[in-house]
Design brief:
By secondary structure, the protein is α+β, with helices and mostly antiparallel strands. Helices cover 22% and strands 35% of the residues. The chain has a 7-stranded antiparallel β-sheet with strand order 1-2-3-4-5-6-7. A hairpin with a 2-residue loop joins strand 6 and strand 7.
């Protein structure tokens, strides 16, 4: 009974971690391409219009175990917005006026190359206060991450994110679909 209790707790912890990671990715996807209306009014003539590809990029088979990678960019709003690790987005945390968030699957820091560990770390990439890229681990034991664009009408996109995680030797799949709101 004790073994079953531990397995149940591990499973619930994994589900909570996957939900949190998917929610962070969904928040970034929804904000992709956001343009601050105040900034737009002030700098309309000098500001470059960004394409949908510049503010939402999916790279197929580019991460650990041929997983996909997601990069999202947006302007900073007048309210309080956060990056994928909880830092408040400010003008200092931008490059060319855009905040950056990236999600990729990489080899775990605690796994050596020959160790046979199949899972990796889901990484969050954002900008520090000097506008330099920083990487932080969101969750461990992720085997695969797939990101696909689903058919949708209009300028906005539907993005399906699927995480495959390992609980012992048992794979668990977590998936959600998000809609962009701000693409040009």
């Amino acid at each position: 009974m004790l073994v079953k209790q531990v397995q149940l707790e591990q499973s619930q912890l994994m589900m909570a971690e996957a939900d949190r990671a998917l929610e962070l990715m969904g928040r970034a996807i929804r904000m992709a391409g956001y343009q601050n209306s105040q900034t737009s009014m002030l700098y309309r003539s000098a500001r470059k219009k960004h394409s949908a590809k510049e503010v939402l990029e999916i790279r197929k088979d580019s991460g650990l175990n041929r997983s996909d990678t997601l990069y999202v960019k947006q302007e900073v709003s007048d309210g309080t917005d956060f990056d994928c690790i909880g830092n408040v987005l400010t003008k200092e945390r931008t490059k060319n006026g855009l905040a950056h968030q990236g999600f990729s699957l990489e080899r775990s820091n605690n796994a050596s190359k020959g160790s046979g560990v199949r899972g990796g770390s889901l990484m969050c990439q954002s900008l520090d206060r000097q506008g330099r890229l920083q990487n932080s681990t969101l969750i461990q034991d992720v085997w695969d991450m797939k990101i696909e664009e689903l058919p949708a009408g209009g300028a906005q996109k539907l993005i399906k994110v699927t995480l495959q995680m390992l609980l012992g030797n048992t794979p668990r799949v977590f998936s959600r679909t998000f809609s962009t709101r701000n693409l040009p």
